[in-house]
Recover the amino acids of this structure.
């Protein structure tokens, strides 16, 4: 299935920081959800419109603002004004074709990652961009559409499970990154299962349809690899950075996410090696099939060569030739052809050239 293109030409000639949405519209209207919490209190608010959010007064503690739907630049502009975000950050949020990265803007960090989900019906992998802005006491997340990926984090906040409501914004940002990386494992499990099943079918019979599936899996694996490799470097950079945003007690958790990212990459490399082996198996099967067909045709041609030779000899226009005048000459010639063909067939069979 051909994916819609993100037309960067829409921004040609515009000033840097111009808010133009590049990507597919995934929701009918933006949805804004707000969590405000500390160790003892949690307040959850949902805004149905931009106007409704303007009258909200922020309370104490940590703030998590999540936005589903990036197709309305006015919403991004209002959020940028409230949190004093750089225009380039807002521009990158609206451009949903970003490479995973981290940018330090002094008062906050801007982090880009990607969601992945496996569609079992089509056998394809879908991708969505998620942008995370981390300040000292707030976290902003921007998603193209509701995916449910962050629902476990919301449930932990509501149920006060673990240290999430006690460790502040940096631990919340870690929890979101950890959820994104953990989501990769479920996609990898389904991708690995499909690849192994394809290998079993390939060993039974190699067909052009299987080759097409192999290339589809190879393409999907490459898409994931392009997102996970830079994300690993992003997390590695966060573990090595100063403690302005991620405090010392959160650093071990970040290193754990880094280990998970490395594990994902190793799993992807394993799938790539498996795909490369499958391509070799396919080419070997096709080559062996061609060799078998050529051998069968060669045997058939060889069996008929003596008959063609005998027919050619007796078809020469000489006046004096053996058995031309004999009544049994025709039957003798056919007998010679059949005898030689049977003898050669027996020899080929004993040498296992016919199987």
């Amino acid at each position: 299935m051909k994916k819609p293109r993100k037309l960067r030409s829409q921004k040609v000639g515009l000033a840097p920081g111009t808010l133009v949405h590049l990507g597919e519209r995934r929701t009918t209207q933006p949805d804004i959800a707000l969590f405000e919490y500390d160790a003892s209190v949690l307040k959850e608010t949902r805004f149905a419109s931009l106007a409704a959010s303007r009258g909200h007064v922020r309370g104490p503690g940590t703030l998590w603002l999540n936005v589903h739907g990036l197709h309305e630049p006015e919403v991004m502009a209002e959020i940028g004004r409230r949190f004093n975000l750089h225009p380039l950050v807002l521009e990158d949020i609206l451009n949903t074709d970003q490479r995973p990265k981290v940018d330090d803007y002094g008062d906050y960090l801007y982090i880009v990652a990607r969601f992945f989900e496996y569609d079992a019906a089509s056998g394809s992998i879908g991708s969505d961009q998620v942008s995370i802005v981390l300040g000292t006491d707030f976290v902003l997340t921007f998603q193209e559409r509701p995916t449910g990926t962050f629902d476990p984090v919301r449930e932990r906040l509501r149920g006060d499970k673990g240290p999430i409501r006690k460790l502040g914004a940096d631990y919340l940002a870690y929890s979101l990154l950890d959820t994104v990386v953990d989501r990769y494992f479920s996609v990898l499990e389904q991708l690995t299962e499909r690849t192994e099943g394809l290998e079993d079918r390939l060993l039974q019979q190699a067909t052009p349809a299987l080759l097409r599936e192999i290339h589809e899996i190879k393409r999907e694996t490459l898409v994931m690899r392009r997102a996970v490799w830079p994300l690993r470097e992003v997390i590695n950079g966060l573990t090595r950075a100063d403690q302005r945003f991620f405090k010392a007690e959160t650093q071990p958790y970040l290193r754990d996410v880094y280990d998970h990212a490395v594990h994902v990459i190793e799993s992807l490399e394993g799938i790539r090696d498996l795909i490369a082996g499958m391509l070799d198996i396919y080419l070997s099967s096709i080559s062996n099939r061609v060799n078998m067909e050529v051998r069968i045709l060669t045997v058939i041609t060889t069996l008929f060569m003596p008959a063609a030779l005998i027919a050619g000899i007796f078809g020469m226009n000489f006046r004096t030739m053996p058995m031309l005048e004999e009544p049994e000459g025709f039957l003798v010639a056919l007998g010679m052809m059949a005898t030689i063909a049977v003898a050669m067939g027996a020899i080929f069979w004993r040498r296992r050239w016919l199987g």
In short: Residues 287-350 form a domain with the Methane Monooxygenase Hydroxylase; Chain G, domain 1 fold (CATH 1.20.58.340). The chain has a mean pLDDT of 85. The chain has two domains: 17-284, 287-350. Residues 251-314 form the longest helix (64 residues).
